Amino acid sequence: MSSSVLIAIVAVAAVALLGLLMRRASVAHPGAATRGTAPPVPIEEAAEGDDEGSDETVAVSSDGWSFVPVGDRDKVQLVPPRVPDELAREAGRASLEQLGRGDLIAARVVRGAPDHDPWRLEALGRDREYRAWRFETEEAARAAAALVTARVVRALRDRDGEPVVVGDADFAAARQQDEEIEAELATMPEPGESPGEPIR
Q1: Distance of CA 141 to the CA centre of its chain
Q2: Among 4, 154, 159, 189, which has the minimal tally of Cβ within 10 Å of its Cβ?
Q3: Sign of the C-alpha dihedral computed for residues 139, 40, 57 and 135 taken in this order
Q4: Tens digit of each residue's pLDDT (9 = 90 or more) over 50-88
Q5: Burial class of residue 174, CB neighbours in 10 A (0-12, 13-18, 19+)
Q6: pTM
Q7: Cβ-proximal residues to 6 (8 Å cutoff; 6+ apart), any chain
Q8: In angstroms, rounded to a whole number, what is the distance separating the alpha carbons of residues 48 and 25?
Q9: Which residues pair with 78 in a beta bridge?
Q10: Are 60 and 46 in contact (CB under 8 A)?
Q11: Phi and psi of 23, rounded to 5°?
Q12: Residue 85 and residue 74: Cα distance in Å, rounded?
């Protein structure tokens, strides 16, 4: 691992930790600012640099995941928030997730539920599977959307080579399917538990 990548990971972890501390402080003091994420870096600034890519964090989600441009301008790395040492030992630290060119076929920013996800970055994967990330501010959500749109999103094409338009109905269908899968998984018995066994 190169020193620049290591420095970037450390810097992102520090930003995520600062964001979490700011959110905790705002909860402890109701009169404090309610903005729970670090301010996003302007997308133009983050995209500058040579072919090795930029180490700048563009936006941080409500859950503390940082969107970072990396590589040869066709990858985005999602860096998880810092995990307390005791939790890391018990559950293991979440691994980095990387999105590459074509992993998403569409992305958009929509209003979410005020108490859950004020702003949401929605996306559809290669197989039209639903993806979503929560943001506290519209600015952060749009910065993340601009990054993945420029580097990752590649529209599907029909037999004539024309881009396939993805609309509201496509997002709604994908989200409904995702919710149905989650509901089905929630009703599945735990390992070692028979399907008819009552939950205690």
Answers
A1: 9
A2: 159
A3: negative
A4: 444 455 778 999 999 999 998 778 899 999 987 555 444
A5: buried
A6: 0.63
A7: none
A8: 33
A9: 67, 97
A10: no
A11: -65, -45
A12: 33
